[in-house]
Amino acid sequence: MIKSSNIFLCSCETSQKVDAKAIGEALGLEATPKLYSHLCRTQIGELKTATPDDGAPVICCTQETPVLMEFWQELTEASGAEATSPVFVNIRETAGWSQQGDKAAPKMAALIAEAQVKVAGAGTVSFNSSGNTLVIGRDETALAAAKRLVGHLNVSLLLDGKTDITPPSLANLPVYCGKVVTATGHLGNYTVTVDGLGILEPSSRDSGTFKDVSGAGELQADIIIDLRGDVPLFRAAEKRDGYLRVDIGDKSAVERTLFDALNMVGEFEKPRYIEYNSATCAHSRSNIVACTRCIDICPTGALISADEKIVVDAHVCAGCGSCAGTCPTGAITYQYSGADGLHDRARALLETYAKAGGENPVLLIKDQDFGDDVISIISRSGPGLPANVLPFTVNEVTQVGLETLLAFGAFGVSAIMIVANPRKADETDGLDFQIELANTIFEGLGYGTQRIRLLIEQDPSVIEEILSSTASLSQMPGKPFIVNGPKRSSLSAALRTLHTYAPAPVDRVALPKGAPLGSVTIDVEGCTLCLSCVGSCPTGALKSNPEAPQLRFSTGACVQCGLCQKTCPEKVITLTPEIDFTQGVRDSVILKEEAPFECITCGKPFATASSIKLMTEKLKGHAMFSAEGAMDRLKMCEICRVADIVNAGSDPWDTGQRRGPKTTDDYLKERNDED
Question: What is the DSSP string of 314-369?
């Protein structure tokens, strides 16, 4: 635990009430931390009292982060100590600047405790741009824009479909024409496919004359500036690094775009947001496609199917996390502030809040951009956040999955409110469904309705009214617990806890179609125990018994991907989306079993009675089994079957005299006979 000397509380010139004693007690500090009033200016020298050996200092101010960070770096450099970055916590807009600020001590302590939770970071993916820029347009505006960049970038101009421009008197950039067909790639590596690619002739006088570029139909670029005013070349174009699309009617926007292009030269890095594990993926088996949730939900097209696996283009991925949130098996995991980190932070937040005497916590999940802006406006121009509303920052709200929502509910909250940016409303379909599933489970167990809400509102005052209305909600029974490990184990732990504390526990909760939880039933009469479903199941929910003909099912492992249903040759499998609380995580039930079929010659068990019955029915009357006793060979083991064929002296491939080839004369004779 960090020492009190390393916690810097500030009342911000007494604009907020900070109860240092209550905060210190909630954090379990040996002494009450000192309270400052002007830490970022006249009292900034007090940072010298921090002792780096006792952990990174926690500075409860975010507005003046640049000033405080610069001073701290000077301190560490002067002392020769190993540099440790301070932890900055916002307790002013989130807690102190509120009409209920005098009740905000539990929230302040909780925010400080959460900020100290260390979360594993993510890897990075690199971009390398040399500044090769392709301007795509249709008129003089595109030519003028391209000319503006000459001298700063290596520029080419592509006139999409039209050539009615006055040729430039100075050939300081190549000018092409042609119809754009497709574009692929990312910053530093774009390829534009052009139909009828031609290049401007030097002899062009009053209008452009173009010569076909033989053997070429592609243009390469590091940066694309799209001035066509047409449909974007990419899905979620605003998320594609290095692709700049602007309305040519907005002159100031065009200028900003040209300026942005100048800053896209060099080496860049961004987080590798997601990781993919094909071993647990339910996408495809044996050329049978089942689960496509991640591909369907990805706004940028960064995920594609190839060789029965999901291929992730980390350069295109924009980090929304929808794929990880909807993935039923956990094959796709969000690395940038992943689920384990979210659970640890929320646990610390809610545990400290309760220890400090806080009641009826409402978890406010928001991103760092739009969400912070909303909170800032509410605190500066409105009544501020209620004392029981605990802000919880994630990279993107769409990264939150079902296991996280259920775990937060099981921690014991009154409600979960998720604030989403209205400009990204079209990306929330996956999150909407996760919320629907979680609310269905809460309601089915008696926790009440609409415990989770997605707020897509442009007006902060509307959000503030909704948050204020949560004061009447009762707290759900539960308490924080450790939730770590793979997605399915986290989900199972949350479900067990919810069922334990449920006001109205039931054995089963029905779920909507598409839910990643459910059971499998089979038509026992039609099943032959071929076990094709076992081989196709990606999670091991369906298993065989090596000791006896048996098909077993574990409901805790089933993700309702449908591979078993599509693979089953007899089409006797039915999926039912539901939660069955009567089975444990590792428990399994027998769907079908039967006694093994014994060889009629030696008595060796070698198959199932249902499979032998099916074969004899389908092969009855077949030429290969028309001889006397041939059908009995289907009831023999592999050794006795061969011995019977040898002893009988018959050729199983002998189907009688073959018919000769049919000639033209034969066809003519048949026709004459018919006439």
Answer: TTT-----HHHHH-SSSSEEE-TT-HHHHHHHHHHHHHHHHHTT--S-EEEEE-TT
